[in-house]
């Protein structure tokens, strides 16, 4: 997925949450990706700076499992 559609998906998801929860914002969003995540992490970081933290989960149905962790210490 290109950068613009990814940002649009995140923003639509956030807006749907806000609408469903009487205007309350969330602090975290989980993005479930069916397969490997090839999209740009710069889009995720830009969204996090404006809105909420994003946890990206890759859903692997076959093959070798792998673990990837992103950690930033202030």
Summarize this entry quickly:
The protein has helices at 3-20, 41-50, and strands spanning 28-34, 53-59. It has 74 residues and is α+β, with helices and mostly antiparallel strands. It has a two-stranded parallel ribbon.
Percent strand equals 15-25%
Helix content: 25-40%
Distance between the termini: 30 Å
> Which blocks of ≥5 consecutive residues have pLDDT under 50?
none
Task: Trace the largest sheet across and list its strands.
Answer: 1-2
The whole-number mean of residue pLDDT values reads 83
**Per the principal axes of the C-alpha atoms, what is the gross shape?**
globular
The succession of helices and strands, N to C, reads: HEHE
**Helical stretch tally:** 2
Largest sheet: 2 strands, parallel
> Over the alpha carbons, how many angstroms does the gyration radius reach?
13 Å
How many domains would you count in the coordinates?
1
Number of strands: 2
Structural class determined from secondary elements: alpha+beta
Can you give a write-up of this model?
With 74 residues, the chain is α+β, with helices and mostly antiparallel strands. It has one domain. 38% of the residues lie in helices and 19% in strands. It has 2 helices and 2 strands. It has a two-stranded parallel ribbon with strand order 1-2. α2 links the parallel β1 (28-34) and β2 (53-59).
Protein topology:
Blueprint: H1 3-20, E1 28-34, H2 41-50, E2 53-59
Parallel strand pairs: 1-2
């Amino acid at each position: 997925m290109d950068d613009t559609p990814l940002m649009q998906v995140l923003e639509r998801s956030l807006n749907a949450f806000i609408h469903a929860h009487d205007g309350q914002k969330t602090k975290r969003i989980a993005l479930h990706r069916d397969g490997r995540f090839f999209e740009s992490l710069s889009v995720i970081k830009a969204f996090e700076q404006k809105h909420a933290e994003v946890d990206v989960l890759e859903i692997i149905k076959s093959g070798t499992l792998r673990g990837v962790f992103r950690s930033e210490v202030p």
